[in-house]
Fold:
Amino acid sequence: MEDIYILGIESSCDDTSAAVLKNGILLSNVTASQAVHEAYGGVVPELASRAHQQNIVPVVDQAIKRAGIEKEMLSAVAFTRGPGLMGSLLVGVSFAKGFARSLGIPMIDVNHLHGHVLAHFIRENEDDNDQPEFPFLCLLVSGGNSQIVKVNAYNDMEIIGQTIDDAAGEAIDKCSKVMGLGYPGGPIIDRLARQGNPEAYRFAHPHIQGYDYSFSGLKTSFLYSLRDWMKDDPDFIEHHKEDLAASLEHTIVDILMKKLRLAVKDTGIRQVAVAGGVSANNGLRNAFRDYAQRYGWKIFIPKFSYTTDNAAMIGITGYFKYLDGDFCSIDKPAFARMEK
Structure:
């Protein structure tokens, strides 16, 4: 059988990434991040799309070079079509269309969220065979999404629970901003939480039916608690930032895990994965291991490099779709939000 080489392209937010896979095994994964947003405390869409324009050609060039192949050997180009920031997506989508057409090879459109879930199937060598079996449950947690997904097959995913307001990562970023700790808040809160007491403070737990999440009440509770404590001590945050970070992280992880446990109990599915940017959080990873031990789950935690936006996850999704002959036409547009 002829070798299948897939180029994956990811540009949904502020990371420009390209990866090359050979028969489903990763040969290269190159990502250019954008430091320009730190000064603004969040991603500025216009600046993000401009940076993608600068980064896309060198990143793709590097990915092909590091894979040790010629671009003419590529079988298809897989790209993130959405959801994400429209300006950022357009850069990746337009490049993918032009590149695929110039080489006369098919295009494969990938849903960014499906990519995160399928990051568990990225293989770095022939012996890398620790992947979940279908069906499995995946807790997908990032700056924009908090979902419990029932994964029946690579192309059959059912969202059984999701946030009705803020995502977990968004709540962490906003609370970090309120504390004046900087952006992105996730890694900062994670680092501080390792040195704090998770039981130091109590914040509101939402009472939402089923498997759905809500984090806006927690955010408000955090904000009002800080305001009250700072009346007595204007430097309260500085004096207690480790304990605040640990208690915030503990509350969010507790909310995430309790709903996931309910889903596992109700579905009887004990193969459980975590994915998305927040899956890099140490508190969540430790809770995952703890729950696995307590309740007999078989768990899958991605490598740190596959938690954030990366093209390897787009490439592996593209590889599965290639095997099915699931290609997309050149007129398919990018989409910012999930299509109903």
